[in-house]
Structures are given as structure tokens and as C-alpha cells.
């Protein structure tokens, strides 16, 4: 719930779950029925300071344990010298004599790796991760060679690392040059620039001990359970932001593997004694208390969702029952005078009324017997005229409001999408997929910063039908020309408001079109590596954009369905799997087999396998022959590398064959279940027992 972008969704889910349970209880009468309607919530946290308030909100019992199965020691390293938490004990490490390693990272890592222990190195940026992995792969290899014992153990994993390299080559995006070098030395980087397949392979290899060191960004600490004997935090910054107590504890908490280590270590690398003091202060820093994320704007979405789902039906229920289910209700009360039946705080009540007013003005809800009207204040806020809503006034969601809720879009985002769709319906370019893909490209793609010179060059080579799409959505050649020349001033022509806001809007539109062009290339089965080079983006960010666009496409389709634009919904329904798999229509059935991406699907098509059933019945040698055509084996590769490549191909073919057979079996089971259900309905309707497996 502390997470900036998704925490409020968890809070909203809990609010809706508890309201739903309240409604279920109101409909139950006997004790047994009440027990069946009870809602059980289990929450766990290792970092929340005000967890008692959270327990009060949920009506939960609080259990606290300070036990840590594996003890954790905290230290600070300054130029090779490790200062323990009490600053009274110093542990000398080998002095950093290498100009490439002024902070002494290599000795700290190699000390653990030489004892067959794992290490996580947290870096401030993605670029730092890759450079740290390259440094460790170069320098640590030579240090290990000096000790024959560890070097022998190190060499024993070489065959597995060779196979890992071949498996990385088999992924849709191909092998990253940095990983090609570092993985063979037992080191890899881990950040958002990796594709899903790459992350999965590297994480599995790290857990098995094939990789001994991962250089990662802070996202790994928050989302992936990869413990280590030693955690090294290489900087007191995360990106451009200072390292805070929450992220520090998430990183440090990865140190010490239960069942493997007797203790865990976390070492923070500082540039100076002053920074070392800051690190020691961070060890004892208090965490920021959990606060409700349902402020004014997000409260609007919360109100719309509970109304659309039928959990709230009147204004009085909003201002009394719904308000008392919010975390804000507990948060805004004085601890000394806290009670669950207290009067709703005036600030919360005002925000709820403003939310109702805003939703009615946007035609997302209807309020019967409400107020006279709505006006806009000088500050731009919507205000109700004619007094507050009547308590008994009924509230219901409009078709557009239902569309916003079922699409899972934010209200302001959904209204923008709705306006785009209204414009597109008057002039939708269907000569190609570009216009539809642009409409399915999320607004968050505006964070994908293009190389404007490259963008201009790409735009000038567009075909006429692509230019028609760019003109329809508002892309300007003049704007691209100015951007490529570094012009960042006011746009030409009259402006109704702040020119900076207008420039940001136009810039976001052009960024979105740039992302749509990249998605169009991926949907046409272009190699992710080639698209990454053409658009100067990482393969991982492109894959993330592809997945986000496929999800967004489904959200837009839901919105179209709810406002009865079924023709538009059908178009997005066809586009969604193409965006998800990055494949043409004829390859989509094969892409549903686990382990089959668009390149593998195309290879299977070329050997005559066009259906999942055909793959399931084919010999494994036929699948292997198709996959071998995708191998990227170097001409000078040795026997060990060739053997690893053939083994990787065989394992991939076996997974594909098994996945196809499972898919066919699941389809047969589904058809059998549907047949039995149809027979049961027929028998119930006609009062006949029938025979199992038949309709008569």
C-alpha cells in the first residue's frame, strides 16, 4: 500500500471487499449463513510502523514478531575499509588498487563467491548495473584463478553457464552482448531493460547457483525473492533520489538465506566518512507511516466503482457507510478520541461531495433529487449549486460510467480515450493497423523519450497511408523539425492557456505516436533486437510497452462494449492478441503454446506445422529442425558450445511438444465439460435422466 502507483488499488480492493461482505451479511439471517458470508483478510508487512492503525481499519487482530531466522549484520564500506554498525570495529579488506574499481567492489564480491556464496549488488541506475557486471566479470575472474580450489569449483559450473548462454540466445530478443560476456563468468545484471524470458532464465540460474552474483536495481528488492549471503548497496542513491529507509530495508532484507546461511550481511558503500555517517543514520531511521492513497482525485474513482458495482445506492450511504469503510476515516481521527461510529471528518465529507459533483458533471453517474446544477469556480474546481445532495437521493452509474469501471481506466484517462474514440469513429484509417495501434497505445507511453532526429528521419520515410494516420491523430512535421533542432519554446499559433501545458500535451501526443510506430513493427513480427536498435530503446522496455499495450487494448475494448460501440470493440478484440504476441494472424494459434514466440511460430509454419494439434502429433525431431534454423551459433564455436546449443534446442523442442499436448488435452476436457453441462441442462428441462456423455 506504500507503493506510489499501485498502492491505492490495493486499498480500493479492500474497501470494495468489505462493502461487499457487509452487503452479504445484511442478506443473511441464520448464524451459519452469517459465517458463510464472513470475509477473511490476512496482511503481512516487515516495514510498516503504524500497523496498529491498519489493524483497526480492517477490524483485525495484530500479531507482531521480531524474530529473524538468520541474523543480519549491517556495515558501511569506505574505500575498502568496512565499518560495522557500532563504528567501533573495523574490518580491513584488500585495498582497492585497481583504477577500474576505486570503491573496492571486486574484493567484497569475490570474497563471498570464492566460498560458493551468492551476492546481490544493488546499483543506482540500469547503466551502473551493466557496468558493474562487466567489471566483476573481468576482474573477479582473475582473482579466482589465483586460488586453485575455488577455481576448480568455479569451472564445474561452466557447462551449465554455456547452456544458459544458449538458452538466452533462443529467446525472442536474442543474446545481449553484455550478458554474453558476463554470464560465462557467473555474473549478470538484472533491471527493467531485460525481457521476461531473460529475467526468468537469470533468476532461475541464480537460485541454482549457476550465477553467483546479480547486479540489480532496487526493483528486484521490492518484487523478486532472490536472497543472498551478502547484499552490497553500491550507492546512497536510487536513480536521482536519495536512498530512503523503506528501500534500504527491502534491499537489506534480501541478505541471509534460511536453510543455507547462518548469517546475512548488508554492506553500504559510501564515498566519504560523511556519507558513511548518513548510512549509519539510515540503519536506525524510522519509516514513514502508512497513509491513505485515496485523496481527492483517487476518491473520485473509488466512489464511481462502488456505485457502478451496486455497493452504494444513495447519497446517505456514501456519506455515512462508505466513508466509515475508508482508511482515511481512521487516519483523520485523533487517536485519543478514536471510535468507529464517530462523526465523519469534515475534510473527508467535503471530498466525497466534491467527488459526487465531479462524477455527475462528467456524466458518469446520475443523481435523482439532488441539487440545482454545477458550476466551475475561478480556481477551475467543480462546485454544486443549490445546496448539498439530498441524503435520500439515489445514485446510479451511466453506461459511460460502467464503461470506465469495467475498463479499469482512471476516470480522467477514460474520458480522454472516449474523446479519442469519438473522433476516430468519424475518420478511422483502416488501410493498415497503425491508427488502431495508436488508439491502443497507452498514454503512459508518453514517457518513452524519442531521439527526435531519428524520429524526424523515420517520419519522412513514412508511406502515404501512414502519413494519413499521422495527420489524423495530429502529428506535425513542423513540430518534429523544431524538436530535432532543440527548440523548446512556445508553439506557433494562439494558445488558450499556459503555453508550457500546451507544449507538453503536443509533445506527449508525438511520443505516443512514436511508441505506436514501434508497436506496429513488433506486431509485424520484426525482431525485438532490430526494433530496439531502430527506436533506440532497450529490449525490456519494448516488451513492457508491448504487454502494456495489449492490456490497454483490452481495456479500450471493454469501454467500447459498455457504450455499445460493438464495431470498434470487435476491431480491438482482433488487435489484442497480435499486440500481446507480436505476431501476424496466421501465427497466433501457435503462439498460444508455452515457449512459442513469433519467431518460433514462423519457423514451425515453415516446416508445415500450422495448428496446435499438428504440433502435438509431430515427432520431436521435426520441431528441433525448425528451431535449429533460429540458432545463432558462431562459426568458430567449439565443441562444448555446439553441444550446449543442441541441448538447448532439444529442451526447447521438448517443452513445446509437451505444451502443445497439454493445450490439446485441455481443449478436449473443456469440450467434454461443455457437452456434459449441455446434457444436464437438457435433462433438467425435459425431466429425463439421460445417459452420461449423451444428450438423450
Could you give the topology of this structure?
Blueprint: H1 7-27, H2 31-36, H3 51-58, E1 72-78, E2 81-84, E3 90-92, H4 105-113, E4 119-122, H5 126-145, H6 148-156, H7 158-170, H8 177-182, E5 187-190, H9 196-208, E6 213-216, H10 218-223, E7 230-233, E8 237-238, E9 241-242, H11 245-252, E10 264-270, H12 273-283, H13 296-308, H14 315-322, H15 327-331, H16 346-361, E11 365-367, E12 373-376, E13 382-385, E14 395-397, H17 399-407, H18 411-426, H19 434-439, H20 452-460, H21 464-473, H22 477-484, H23 499-523, H24 528-534, H25 539-562, H26 566-581, H27 588-591, H28 598-606, H29 612-617, H30 620-628, H31 639-686
Parallel strand pairs: 1-10, 4-6, 4-7, 5-6, 7-10
Antiparallel strand pairs: 1-2, 2-3, 8-9, 11-14, 12-13
Helix pairs in contact: 1-13, 4-5, 7-9, 7-31, 13-16, 17-25, 20-22, 23-25, 23-26, 25-26, 30-31
Give a concise summary.
By secondary structure, this protein is α/β, with parallel strands linked by helices.
3D architecture notes:
The chain is an alpha/beta fold. The protein folds into four domains: about 5-50 and about 290-395, no CATH class; about 70-285, P-loop containing nucleotide triphosphate hydrolases (Rossmann fold); about 405-580, Sec63 N-terminal domain-like fold; about 600-685. The protein is built from 31 helices and 14 strands. The strands form four sheets. Strands 3-2-1-10-7-4-6-5 form an eight-stranded mixed sheet, sandwiched between helices. It has a two-stranded antiparallel sheet with strand order 8-9. The longest helix is centred in the last third of the chain and has 48 residues, at about 640-685.
Amino acid at each position: 500500500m506504500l507503493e506510489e502507483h499501485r498502492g491505492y488499488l490495493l486499498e480500493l480492493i479492500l474497501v470494495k471487499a468489505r462493502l461487499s461482505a457487509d452487503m452479504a451479511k445484511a442478506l443473511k439471517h441464520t448464524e451459519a449463513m452469517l459465517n458463510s458470508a464472513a470475509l477473511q483478510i490476512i496482511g503481512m508487512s516487515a516495514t510498516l510502523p503504524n500497523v496498529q492503525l491498519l489493524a483497526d481499519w480492517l477490524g483485525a487482530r495484530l500479531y507482531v514478531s521480531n524474530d529473524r531466522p538468520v541474523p543480519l549484520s549491517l556495515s558501511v564500506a569506505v574505500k575498502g575499509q568496512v565499518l560495522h554498525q557500532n563504528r567501533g570495529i573495523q574490518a580491513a579488506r584488500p585495498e582497492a588498487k585497481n583504477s577500474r574499481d576505486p570503491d573496492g567492489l571486486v574484493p567484497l564480491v569475490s570474497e563471498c563467491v570464492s566460498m560458493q556464496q551468492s551476492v546481490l549488488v544493488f546499483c543506482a541506475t540500469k547503466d551502473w548495473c551493466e557496468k558493474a557486471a562487466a567489471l566483476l566479470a573481468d576482474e573477479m575472474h582473475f582473482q579466482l584463478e589465483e586460488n586453485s580450489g575455488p577455481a576448480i569449483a568455479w569451472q564445474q559450473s561452466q557447462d551449465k553457464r554455456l547452456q544458459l548462454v544458449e538458452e538466452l540466445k533462443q529467446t525472442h530478443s536474442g543474446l545481449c552482448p553484455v550478458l554474453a560476456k558476463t554470464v560465462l563468468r557467473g555474473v549478470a545484471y538484472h533491471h527493467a531493460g531485460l525481457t521476461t524470458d531473460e529475467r526468468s532464465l537469470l533468476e532461475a540460474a541464480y537460485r541454482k547457483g549457476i550465477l553467483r552474483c546479480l547486479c540489480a536495481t532496487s526493483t528486484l528488492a521490492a518484487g523478486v525473492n532472490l536472497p543472498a549471503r551478502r547484499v552490497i548497496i553500491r550507492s546512497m542513491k536510487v536513480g536521482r533520489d536519495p536512498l530512503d529507509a523503506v528501500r534500504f530495508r527491502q534491499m537489506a532484507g534480501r541478505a541471509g538465506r534460511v536453510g543455507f546461511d547462518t548469517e546475512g550481511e548488508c554492506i553500504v558503500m559510501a564515498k566519504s566518512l560523511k556519507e558513511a555517517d548518513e548510512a549509519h543514520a539510515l540503519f536506525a531511521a524510522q519509516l514513514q507511516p502508512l497513509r491513505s492513497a485515496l485523496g481527492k482525485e483517487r476518491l473520485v474513482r473509488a466512489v464511481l466503482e462502488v456505485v457502478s458495482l451496486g455497493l452504494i445506492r444513495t447519497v446517505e450511504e456514501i456519506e455515512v457507510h462508505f466513508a466509515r469503510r475508508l482508511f482515511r476515516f481512521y487516519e483523520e481521527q485523533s487517536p485519543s478520541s478514536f471510535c468507529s461510529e464517530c462523526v465523519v471528518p469534515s475534510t473527508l465529507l467535503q471530498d466525497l461531495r466534491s467527488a459526487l459533483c465531479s462524477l455527475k458533471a462528467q456524466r458518469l453517474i446520475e443523481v435523482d433529487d439532488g441539487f440545482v446544477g454545477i458550476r466551475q469556480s475561478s480556481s477551475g474546481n467543480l462546485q454544486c449549486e443549490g445546496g448539498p445532495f439530498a441524503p435520500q437521493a439515489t445514485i446510479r452509474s451511466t453506461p459511460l460510467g460502467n464503461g470506465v469501471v469495467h475498463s479499469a481506466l482512471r476516470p480522467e484517462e477514460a474520458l480522454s480515450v472516449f474523446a479519442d474514440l469519438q473522433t476516430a469513429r468519424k475518420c478511422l484509417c483502416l488501410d493498415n493497423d497503425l491508427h488502431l495501434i495508436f488508439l491502443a497505445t497507452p498514454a503512459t507511453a508518453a514517457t518513452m523519450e524519442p531521439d527526435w532526429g531519428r524520429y524526424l528521419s523515420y517520419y519522412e520515410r513514412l508511406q502515404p497511408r501512414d502519413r494519413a494516420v499521422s495527420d489524423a491523430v495530429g502529428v506535425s512535421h513542423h513540430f518534429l523539425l523544431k524538436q530535432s533542432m532543440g527548440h523548446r519554446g512556445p508553439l506557433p499559433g494562439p494558445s488558450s492557456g499556459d503555453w508550457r501545458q500546451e507544449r507538453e500535451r503536443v509533445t506527449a501526443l508525438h511520443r505516443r505516436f512514436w511508441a505506436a510506430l514501434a508497436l506496429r513493427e513488433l506486431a509485424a513480427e520484426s525482431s525485438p533486437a532490430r526494433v530496439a536498435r531502430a527506436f533506440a530503446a532497450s529490449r525490456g522496455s519494448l516488451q513492457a510497452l508491448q504487454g502494456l499495450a495489449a492490456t490497454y487494448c483490452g481495456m479500450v475494448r471493454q469501454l467500447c462494449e459498455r457504450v455499445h460501440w460493438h464495431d470498434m470493440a470487435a476491431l480491438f478484440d482482433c488487435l489484442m492478441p497480435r499486440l500481446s504476441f507480436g505476431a501476424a494472424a496466421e501465427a497466433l494459434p501457435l503462439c498460444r503454446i508455452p515457449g512459442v514466440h513469433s519467431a518460433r511460430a514462423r519457423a514451425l509454419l515453415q516446416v508445415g506445422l500450422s495448428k496446435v494439434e499438428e504440433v502435438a502429433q509431430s515427432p520431436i525431431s521435426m520441431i528441433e529442425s525448425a528451431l535449429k534454423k533460429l540458432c545463432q551459433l558462431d562459426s568458430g564455436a567449439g565443441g562444448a558450445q555446439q553441444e550446449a546449443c543442441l541441448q538447448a534446442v532439444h529442451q526447447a523442442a521438448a517443452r513445446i511438444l509437451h505444451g502443445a499436448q497439454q493445450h490439446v488435452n485441455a481443449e478436449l476436457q473443456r469440450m467434454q465439460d461443455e457437452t456434459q453441462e449441455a446434457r444436464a441442462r437438457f435433462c433438467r428441462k425435459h425431466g429425463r435422466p439421460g445417459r452420461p456423455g449423451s444428450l438423450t
